[in-house]
Every structure is written in structure tokens, then in C-alpha cells.
Design brief:
InterPro entries: Phage_phiKZ_Orf197 (IPR021737). With 232 residues, the protein is mainly α. The chain contains 12 helices and no strands. It has 2 domains: 117 residues, no CATH class; 110 residues, no CATH class. The two termini are 30 Å apart.
């Protein structure tokens, strides 16, 4: 685990802290002809050797550096095909981390992976999944009759309310598991403060009631889920 942590730290430093924007732009424009692509790969190799501080791991460093070159080059060619650049970005990061994992546990990769899955807290995983999209869909069905009577605010970001609800339910679940019930009150208070000006300006009682019911439903579902998990 220590080795994986060091390799991950080297990756984070090399990919984020020590990669200027001009390198990224130059790579996107010149692809395999970009000198910064090769400098970036060499930097990763050097960071791995520096953090591991053991010459016997040079082969692992070489494999990771080579795979980094291949993955980054593939990303440079594939990324323009995606409308959302976040998709190739996250795919790129996942592939890099998978390579690190495979290099560290290559001797017992299958056994270690199986042990990870068997050691998962499956009730917690289920609770996390439930308070995300399933809870949002349930709320949508419960509020369906009311939503038809509310005028849509076209100034809002697409699906912003959905994502805000998912994030707040995840926070509530985390606070319940930690036993920090007072933090839930602070979260409700913070949300109320941010919503106050919008509701005051709209002067729409139906919208106020709709948001209040939605907020209570969202927190209620998360609280019930947390209580069930803690007492299971």
C-alpha cells in the first residue's frame, strides 16, 4: 500500500502540479511531435524514482512512464471527438491509476482485487448509490404533480437542482455515519441562506413551498437511509 501511495503521489505531482498549461496546449497542437510530451513522461519517471528511492524499482518506473506516454498520446487523438472534455480527462486518469495498481500488485493481482471487493462495506455502497440518482428519481415522482404548477427558471443551470440534491444527501449520509447531527442543521441553514435571496426576488409562494417540500424530502430520504445503515 505504501508503494502504491508513493506512485500515486508521483502521478499527482507530475500530472497536476508540474504540468503547466502551455505544455498541455503544445501537446494538443503537436501531439507526438511535442517535446513537452516526452519531457512530461521523463518527469514522471524521475518523480517515481525520487519518491520510491530504490533502484530496484526502475523497471516499474519504466513501465509506468511508457504506459503514460501511450495513454497520453491516445488521449491527444481521441479527446477532440468528445463534446465534453471531462470524459477523456477522467478516462485518462482512471487508466493511469489502473496501471499503477497493476504494477504494484502484479504478483497477486487477481487475489488482491478479489480481497478488495470482498472487503467492501456493501451496505454503505448501497446507501451511497441510493441517495444519489435513485433518491432523485423517487423525489421527482413524488413531486411530479406539483412540478407542473411551477414556472421553470430558464436562468438556472441544466440539472443543477438534481446535482445539488445528490451532493447534499451524500453530505447528510456522511454526517449521520460520523454521528455529527449538528452538521446537518448547519447544512440546512447554509442552503436556506443561499436560497433566501432567490425566493425573495421571485416573490412566488408556490415556488417557495415547492423548494421547501423538496428540501425536506431530500434530507428526509438521506436521514432515513443513514439511520438504517447505522442500525443495520
Amino acid at each position: 500500500m505504501v508503494l502504491f501511495t508513493k506512485l500515486l503521489l508521483a502521478h499527482l505531482i507530475g500530472d497536476f502540479l508540474l504540468q503547466p498549461s502551455r505544455w498541455v496546449i503544445h501537446k494538443e497542437a503537436n501531439k507526438e511531435k511535442s517535446r513537452y510530451l516526452y519531457l512530461h513522461v521523463l518527469l514522471h519517471f524521475a518523480l517515481i524514482m525520487l519518491l520510491v528511492w530504490d533502484l530496484q524499482y526502475w523497471k516499474i518506473a519504466l513501465v509506468i512512464a511508457t504506459s503514460h506516454y501511450v495513454i497520453d498520446l491516445a488521449k491527444l487523438y481521441v479527446a477532440p471527438r468528445f463534446r465534453l472534455q471531462s470524459v477523456p480527462f477522467f478516462l485518462d486518469q482512471v487508466l493511469h491509476i489502473l496501471v499503477l495498481y497493476c504494477c504494484v500488485y502484479y504478483g497477486n493481482l487477481t487475489e488482491h482485487t478479489m480481497a478488495l471487493f470482498q472487503g467492501l462495506d456493501w451496505p454503505l455502497v448501497t446507501a451511497i448509490v441510493f441517495v444519489s440518482s435513485p433518491a432523485a428519481i423517487i423525489m421527482g415522482k413524488l413531486l411530479e404533480a406539483m412540478s407542473d404548477k411551477i414556472e421553470l427558471d430558464h436562468k438556472s443551470l441544466p440539472n443543477a437542482g438534481k446535482y445539488i440534491g445528490i451532493i447534499e444527501r451524500l453530505f447528510v449520509l456522511m454526517f449521520i455515519i460520523m454521528g455529527r447531527w449538528e452538521a446537518i442543521g448547519l447544512l440546512i441553514g447554509a442552503k436556506s441562506v443561499f436560497r433566501f435571496n432567490d425566493l425573495k426576488e421571485s416573490n412566488n409562494r408556490k415556488l417557495t413551498e415547492y423548494i421547501l417540500i423538496g428540501t425536506l424530502l431530500s434530507f428526509g430520504l438521506a436521514i432515513i437511509t443513514g439511520i438504517i445503515y447505522v442500525n443495520a
